[in-house]
Amino acid sequence: MSARLQFDGISKVFPAVRALDDVSFSVGAGEIHGLLGENGAGKSTLLRILSGVYRPTAGSVLIDGRPVTLANPVAARAAGIAMIHQELQQVPRLSVAQNMFLGHPVTRGGIFVARREQQRRAAKALAAMDPSIDPAAPLGSLKVAQRQIVEIARALLDRARIVAMDEPTSSLTPSEFQRLAQVIKGLARDGVAVVYVSHKLDEVFGICQRATIMRDGAVIDSVDLKRVSEKAVVAMMVGRELAQEQHRSYASSDVMLSVRGLASATKVRDVSFDLHRGEVLGIAGLVGSGRTELLRLLAGADRATAGTMAIDGKPMRFATPRDAIAAGIGLVPEERKREGIVPLRSITSNMALASMGVFTPRGMIDHTSLKRAAADKMKRVNLRPFLLDRPIRLFSGGNQQKAIIGRWLAAGSRILLFDEPTRGIDVGAKAEIYHLIEELAAEGHAVVVVSSELPEVIRLADRVLVMRDGTIAAELQSGDITEEAIAAHAIPQTQTPAAWQARQ
Amino acid sequence: MSDTTLVQPRSEFLRGVSMRDAGTLIGLVVILAVFGALVPGFFAERNLINILQQSSINACLALGMTLVIISGGIDLSVGPTAALSAVISASMLVAGIPFPLAIAAGFAIGLGCGLVNGILVAYVGLQPFIVTLGTLSTYRALALIYTGGNPVLGLPAGFRAVFNGSLFGLPLAVVIVAGVAFVAWIVLKKTPFGEYLLAVGGNEEAAYIAGVPIARTKIAAYMISGLLAALAAQILIGRLGAAEPILGNLWELDAIAAAAIGGASLMGGKGSIVGTILGAVILGAMRNGLTLMNVQSFYQLLATGLIILAAMLIDRVTRGRG
Q1: Which chain B residue lies closest to A330 (C-alpha atoms)?
Q2: A339 and B7: CB-CB below 8 Å?
Q3: What does pTM read for this prediction?
Q4: HEC sequence for A219-267
Q5: What is the helix (H) or strand (E) element at residue A333, kind and residue range?
Q6: Quick check: A19 and B12 CB within 8 A?
Q7: Which of the residues A127, A413, B202, B256 has an alpha carbon 20 to 30 A from that of B171?
């Protein structure tokens, strides 16, 4: 196998920090190569060099053995490099075909866009991957997984020889991932070199042949994935052994939150359950099964159209999150950037947002007590670096998440709702968040964890509700929580006998 | 993305609001120095006081504008709000109504105009630009219809004396606006409302989930903007002794310019009271200097435009990559 792509001694020095230090590895044509490392390890910087956004301070990128100068993104694209970003760079209102030809449309006489011809070529590129995608449909009407596929098809149209994918599956369901994996393997069969960045080790092991592990800007090792264990790879990423921890339960029998027949205008219908003091209740189910919508109802972010909620036996009705917060409920949302943080504001301000009343004894904010509380809560969640006045956007995802958890500690919330608590968070911070959730339960908080990662649910939950089509399909007690059991209840049974009879 | 965040820890940390204000201050010093060198008597005490007085009305509006911009909105209706407030106060004064009452009525008009803007933005969910573009015409039309297009003349001397007085050797208007600026600074730095403004403008969805009262915060910002427009109107008619229904034409643009020069981001979530005041004085000093140099008004307009663009360019360059 010739090295289609080779990084040769790449270093990148920013004014304060050496982001990459003598990075060398190569990816062969037809190889799917994993790139692993915690946040801050240098993966994104390396990808930015590959896509022409940054110039390396030293070293060079070689394609098919020849050094190339990637002065800007256009040059990188011309060299046959395609980037598939974590947050897709597409225009939702334009059609699939228009998006695929964005920036270099097919024209008639250089003036008019040849829309039909674009659609024909787009359809041809998509046919092998997902024939159900209509090139004329607005891109916004597609699911995230399909949009990923459109992006890959676009790379093919560009005749890319190298495709770099940054966390392509962070929001996909297992079956969507399978489809995407097939597409990626198809790319490799056509001789494309694929660089695949993901936090999900099982995916990397499933799809890649080799992987390079980075830490603190340097390559730790390039390994053959058939010959190493996941545990060894994690140890290389983190720089220490992470103990595999067992689930511990602190659940009591006092009912803290009681939900009966809850429904929303959009998705949730007839949901009933009890949540106990000290309990971690897992909610599993496919994306779109109504898990996030249920949490939003509980947090007052959406209004319930039917059903009742009671906290400590007292009936509650929430018009806004403000009401729910006053009742002791806090939501740690799935989309941190969109619903969690105020990016320009400091850690302290972000933390205090839900509890301004506590720090405002007489109309004015008591900055002394606010600072003390921030120091206290952020020590508790182990914020790193410990810079409370620094804008939150400059922190890693894991530390942003810790600050949001601190927000609810400051507000004195007793019921904490986590939606995908470790999405986009690296392995080390993940373990910390798990510990934190356990500690909260041990202190008598009641916790709900929605997660698509089944190992996470199994690791954390005392009890699991499996959602399907907006309602609870099954309840699994601690002994019965297995990946198989959850999957069996989560997948819609389109051909149940009842449905079949009804159709006759 | 996460990699780059670790890459520039210190510079970004230091470059807080106060650094931005220092930049605006440097801009002001440069402009003062240039005019001081070119215009004899520019630094005379009398002229410096003049500059402050000429800047005070725009500064007053710009303070309200800054709060609205921080909340992620914009208020294009400040000029017509001022006009409506002015003609109603003025006609009450001319009718012999005691001036505290007439001033209070003017303020109430300002608050009312802001309330309408705020409700349309916060509860109806219309875009601030369009809402205040609509009320810009509506309020102006109301002022014109109310007066039949004629100025209200002959304001009582007692009323005029209030706003033309001076305190500590400074025109009262300057003292009032300085007081308002101080209160605005306190509000932004030390009250929950200030935090809420920054959060709503910085990320409305996140602020909502964190329990921030979104609608109330926005409405309050527009009401403050309306109130300060009314205050500016009272100062102006006190100075002129008459209220014209076309008063305040294009005020909104100067106010936005002062806020932007001072570091407010039209994307919301960012802005500075100190910066806005400095921005208003920059614009005032420049106009004063150019007038003293007998520069034609066309060129004054050109200079204003270039200052705004230069300020934004410097802002962009010093901030580096977005």
Answers
A1: B210
A2: no
A3: 0.81
A4: EEEEEECCCCCHHHHHHHHHCCCCCCCCCCCCCCCCEEEEEEEEEECCC
A5: none
A6: no
A7: B256
What are phi and psi for residue A36, nearest 5 degrees?
Answer: -120, 150
Q: Cα(B115)–Cα(B117) distance, rounded to whole angstroms?
A: 5
Which phi and psi angles does B296 have, rounded to 5°? -60, 150
Helix (H) and strand (E) counts in chain A? 17, 22
Instruction: Tell me the pLDDT tens digit for each residue of B26-73.
Output: 999 999 999 999 999 999 999 999 999 999 999 999 999 999 999 999
Helix (H, G, I), strand (E, B) or coil at A331: strand
In this structure, chain B runs to a length of: 322
The per-type count for chain B, helices as H runs and strands as E runs, is: 15, 2
- Cα distance between residue A316 and residue A294, in whole Å: 16
Question: Is the omega angle on the peptide bond into residue A333 within 30 degrees of 0, that is, cis?
Answer: no
By three-state DSSP, how is residue A430 classified? helix
Q: How far, in Å, CA of A433 to CA of A427, rounded?
A: 10
Query: Across the A/B interface, how many CB contacts are shorter than 8 Å?
Result: 130
Q: Which amino acid is present at A277?
A: R
Span A360-398, pLDDT tens digits: 988 899 999 999 999 999 999 999 899 999 999 989 889
Q: Does A367 touch chain B (CB under 8 A)?
A: yes
Q: Which residues of A touch B12 (CB under 8 A)?
A: 390-391, 394
Q: Tokens standing for B239?
A: 């100075």
Q: Do A345 and B191 touch (CB under 8 A)?
A: no
- A174 — phi, psi (to 5°)? -55, -40
Chain A residues whose CB is inside 8 A of the B198 CB are 342, 344-345, 349
Q: Give dist(CA B147, CA A468) in Å, integer.
A: 65
